[in-house]
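Researcher: Good morning. I'm working through a list of sequences from a screen, and I'd like to move beyond sequence-only analysis. For each chain I'm collecting a predicted structure so we can compare shapes side by side. This is the next one on the list. No need for commentary yet; just the structure.
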Amino acid sequence: MSPLAQSIRFWLMRRPRPVKVRLHVGKDISEIETGAGVSWARVAETVDSMEAGKLEALDEKGMLIRACKPEELAEPDDDDDDAAAPPAAPVVVPFDAETERWKLFATLLDGAYKHANEQAFATLAGIVERMARRDEATSRAIERIRDGLLREAEDRYAAATDAAGAGEGGMLAQMAGALLSGAAQGKAEAAPAAPTNGKGH
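Model: Good morning. Structure tokens for this chain:
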């Protein structure tokens, strides 16, 4: 079917549909029945082959419904009910590279902050643990030194007391006693004070 025959077919099938088509070919007039069971495509091809100068669509009473010239149908009418509508163009969402870059930057920054916080907490915990171990070692070392000095003082006092009992002079015993008393007093002062419940002596 030629493009013009297709356009004639669309024109004939518009509502209200005609019962008869009148063709003006030069000075001659012809009519084609378009009742039930008639092929619209065959009628359109017949009209196209006759090269009519004018077409008239008639109803069952012979009244004119519409008329046209075939050359005017070279382009289908926009209001043709049976014309196939062009397919809708697919909706394409534009790709925004700048937005995607900002999304990637935000994701990386969030991950970096989480990693930095975890590393910071781990480092701080390690520092606190090392300081605690060092303080504990220092306290033990001081306690050992103090105990050693106190034992040494006690030994000297005992030796001085024995010497005094043997009659070797009282000056050495007095010096040893003073040294022992000073060491004991220092140990007592280093010990934590008992709680007083906020009451004075």
